[in-house]
């Protein structure tokens, strides 16, 4: 199996992101990722043989807080540690941007995964807009 390459803030095309999200997220509809990436603190992409197989986005408030969003691993690559590697690289990118806290929201079935990444549960609030 070819080596995996993780990159911080690489150029990403909508077509490859939509292909990854379509494979990983049931019900994904093609979208433009440019507006998201323009506002992001960082993003991490994983490629194997030039193919995008993993992605995570880091959003920030410009200060102490950063947030990871859209942790995505292609189904062919799951259960091999790629998700953890992506999140840890995202944490390093957030730290390098000056953040002191990294937040993540997740569904209950993902709690073991994010615990493996070093997160612990806290109380939080959510308002649907």
Overview of the molecule:
The protein is an alpha+beta fold and 129 residues long. The chain is built from 4 helices and 5 strands; from the N terminus they run βααβββαβα. It is globular. The model has no long low-confidence stretch (mean pLDDT 95).
Main-sheet strand order equals: 1-2-3-4-5
Give the helix proportion (percent range).
25-40%
DSSP helix count?
Answer: 4
* Spatial shape: globular
Report mean pLDDT, rounded to a whole number: 95
The number of domains? 1
The number of distinct β-strands equals 5
Class derived from helix and strand content = alpha+beta
Order of helices and strands: EHHEEEHEH
Q: Determine the strand fraction and express it as a percent band.
A: 25-35%
- Name of the CATH first level: Alpha Beta
List the helices and strands and how they pair.
Layout: E1 4-8, H1 14-24, H2 34-39, E2 42-48, E3 51-60, E4 65-73, H3 82-96, E5 101-103, H4 111-116
Parallel strand pairs: 4-5
Antiparallel strand pairs: 1-2, 2-3, 3-4
